[in-house]
Structure formats: C-alpha cells, structure tokens
C-alpha cells in the first residue's frame, strides 16, 4: 500500500499566471515541499469555444447554464471565464452553494456589499442580504458565477430567477440540474467529452508536474479508461505516479439496444412462419407472443425519459 501521496495547491500570482505548489504528504502527516511548477494544465483552456460564447453572452447581459458530467471541466471553464471578465474590469462574484445564508454572505462579500446594518451594526438576515445584493446589482454591472448550482435551494433559485427580469448576467454550472424554474429559463451549453489531442496534452502536463514520463502505450491505455474526462485523466496520471493498479473505465458509456430488439422481432416473426409451415400451433403461438412482448418492451424503452446517468451521480 502506498505510504505517501502528492498534494497540489494552485495559486494565482500577481502577474495573472497560475502556479502549482507540490507537497509530499507522508503516512504520519508530515509535509515536504516538492517545489513549484508552472501549471500548463491550469493556464491552457481546452474549451476555448465555449469560453468565448459564455463571455459574449454574459456581456450581452444574459444568463447561461453549463451542464457536464463530474470532472468534465466546468469549474476550470468558470475560472477562465471569470479571468477574462476580470481583465475587462468587471466585478465577479464566484460562489459554490452552501446554506442559503452563507451563500448570500459569500456573494455580498465578493461584490463588496456590506453584510451588516450600517445603523445598528447587526448582521443582515437572508431577505435583507437579498435586497442589498439586488440593489447593488441593479445599479452596477457585475457578474454572478455559481458552481454546483444544482445545490441551490428553492428560495435562492427563485431569487436568481427574479434577477433575470432585469437581465442580470449570471453563469450557473451544474452536473444534473433539475428540469424546473431557474434552470429552464437559462440558455444551456452541454460540455462534450474532450478530444484525444486535448486529453493527451492534459496527461502529459499532469505527468510533467509530477516529474514522470508516459510512453505512447501508457497514454493510449490511460485515454481509453478516461473517455474524454479531464478529471479522470489527471487521476490516472497520479495513479501511475503512485504505482497503483489501473481500474476499469468509469466514465459514461452507452449501448443502443434498438438493433437487438429489431433482430429479436425478426427472429420471432420467422418463428411464426416456420410454425405455420409445419402446421405447429404451439410454435406459431409462441412466436406471436414473443413478437408482441418484444414490441411492448421497445415501446416502454422509447417512452422512458432520456436523462443520462452522469458520472458521480
């Protein structure tokens, strides 16, 4: 069993670049610095098209919902969007929901909105924070970025939906957002799996940060297990570094059962004709029953809601 692990801390420097600080964590909790490296993973946007579309939509005072499976790069994409908007001089409030009150406090602090009453000095309650933030946003151009937005409670979703009436720009990122209220009102961008070229680049960069090299065979095997998911490819590189056994693929995989059902219908239809030709009533009836059964299964499957089961759900 491995007696150590690698911990990485990502920090943004004054010049806007990102740097990764690596530490070796021993089994006794000891911490030893492995030095700092330039993080090409963090500096390179592999979803440049999506980033440009989101930035343009937000500048047009629109809301956007980004949906993708766990590890598909939603948080990284949000960071690049926020960085671009910051370079343009816009205030940005980036939060991940916790309790309703704490979420509002985080938003207020990020926007520079007071969280205490200027007259009494007491902390503002939830409705007061909502009113103070809304008043600030109506008089200023600022952007809201909410990661893990599916964790937003009904009250906060309703509050954010109300802001859309005056075209408050906001970016929400979610893995499995509920199909209701706020999430139905926002234009949606679905994150597809990254192409192999981008996945290879991420794997090489992650390996370089750990000081290891991956052969072409290692890369091919690694990419096959990750299915275009950047989080998984970085996890697999860390596993290689620690000498851990590779696991089976755990990204989303789908098989279309329609050809099998059609083939079954054809086989059972032929069975009926054979029964008719040999004057076998039992074979004829069995073929008919099985044909109807397969048809019913096909109708049931086609009527099911097409909600994919995402990784990590």
Automatic annotation (TrEMBL):
Domain HTH cro/C1-type, first and last residues per copy: 102-118
Keyword Transmembrane helix annotated: yes
Domain of life: Bacteria
Keywords: Membrane, Transmembrane, Transmembrane helix
Alphabetized InterPro entries for the sequence: AAA+_ATPase, AAA_22, Cro/C1-type_HTH, P-loop_NTPase, Sigma_54_int_dom_ATP-bd_1
Ranges that cross the membrane: 254-275, 281-301
Record-given protein name: KaiC
An example Gene Ontology molecular-function term: ATP hydrolysis activity
């Amino acid at each position: 069993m491995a007696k150590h692990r690698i911990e990485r801390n990502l920090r943004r420097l004054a010049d806007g670049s990102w740097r990764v600080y690596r530490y070796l964590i021993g089994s006794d909790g000891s911490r030893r610095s492995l030095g700092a490296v330039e993080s090409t993973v963090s500096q390179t946007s592999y979803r440049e098209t999506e980033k440009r579309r989101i930035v343009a939509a937000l500048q047009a005072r629109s809301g956007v919902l980004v949906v993708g499976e766990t590890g598909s790069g939603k948080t990284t994409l949000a960071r690049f969007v926020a960085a671009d908007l910051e370079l343009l001089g816009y205030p940005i409030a980036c939060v991940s929901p916790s309790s309703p009150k704490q979420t509002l406090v985080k938003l207020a602090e990020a926007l520079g909105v007071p969280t205490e009453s200027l007259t009494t000095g007491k902390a503002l309650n939830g409705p007061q924070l909502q009113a103070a933030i809304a008043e600030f946003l109506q008089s200023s151009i600022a952007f809201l970025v909410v990661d893990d937005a599916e964790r937003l409670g009904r009250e906060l979703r309703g509050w954010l939906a109300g802001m859309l009436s005056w075209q408050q720009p906001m970016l929400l990122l979610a893995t499995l957002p509920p199909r209701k209220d706020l999430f139905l009102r926002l234009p949606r961008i679905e994150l597809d799996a990254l192409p192999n070229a981008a996945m290879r680049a991420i794997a090489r960069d992650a390996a370089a940060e750990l000081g290891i090299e991956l052969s072409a065979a290692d890369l091919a095997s690694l990419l096959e297990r990750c299915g275009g998911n950047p989080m998984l490819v970085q996890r697999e590189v860390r596993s290689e570094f620690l000498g851990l056994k590779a696991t089976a693929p755990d990204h989303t995989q789908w098989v279309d059962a329609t050809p099998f059902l059609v083939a079954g219908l054809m086989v059972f239809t032929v069975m009926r004709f054979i029964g008719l030709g040999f004057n076998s009533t039992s074979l004829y009836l069995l073929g008919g029953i099985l044909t109807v059964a397969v048809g019913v299964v096909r109708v049931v499957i086609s009527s099911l809601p097409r909600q994919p089961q995402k990784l990590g759900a």
